[in-house]
Amino acid sequence: MEAFQEIRVLAQSLVTDFILHNPKEFVEVIDSIKLENFEINMLLKSEQFDINEKNQIIELYDLDTLAIDDAMIIRDLNFNIDRRTTDAAWKLLPDDKKYQLFLNQIASFSNEELLSIFEQFSKVYHQLIERSNYKYTLPYTKYNDELTQKLLEKEYVTSSNRHTSGKRNLLGEETATIVGYVKQAKKTVVGV
What is the pLDDT of residues 5-56, one digit of tens each? Predict the structure, then answer.
């Protein structure tokens, strides 16, 4: 720990380099280290740390001073992180940047919360709001394919199948859609 403090005093710009050259020592004292958000961002981009260690690093964020650059780094993390950090990043991201954060952190949202999120997204996703065994059709994209697979895992949808139309787009590629059914929401019975 003393070495980290000495490096910070001597040359703040070397702190992340020192940590990256001493990752095991850093993880041992992580709870007693204070890092700036930009330093945390650099560590999260590194391959030196596993997912558990990166989650420990995420805990070092000062969420009150989180900036759009930090939110963009958080958006791209493709492993589950704590909900407070997800929510803080969500508030900062422009609407068109929220899609990737949502896809990467979908596990932290309840199925009920998905309704309001789909409401915020473009109209093509509004069909996922209807929870009465409603048939949906989405354009086939890598994003929509990953999204519907994750929705299957969460049991929000009951099926997701790719269908080709036989038609070609301007690039000569065959157009395709993803078709499935939104799972009917369970009705809660109010006690008598």
Answer: 777 667 777 888 889 998 999 999 998 888 999 999 999 999 999 999 999 9
pTM: 0.85
- Report yes or no on 25 lying in a domain: no
Report the domain count for the chain: 1
**Main-chain dihedrals φ then ψ at residue 140, nearest 5 degrees:** -75, 120
Report the half-sphere exposure of 48 (CA within 13 A, side-chain side): 19
**What one-character DSSP code corresponds to residue 36?**
-
In a domain, 155, yes or no: yes
Taking Cα atoms as reference points, which of 127, 179, 88 lies closest to residue 114? 127
What is the token pair recorded at 150? Answer: 């994750």
Amino acid at 86: T
Which residues, at least 6 apart from 149, have a Cβ–Cβ distance to it below 8 Å? 160
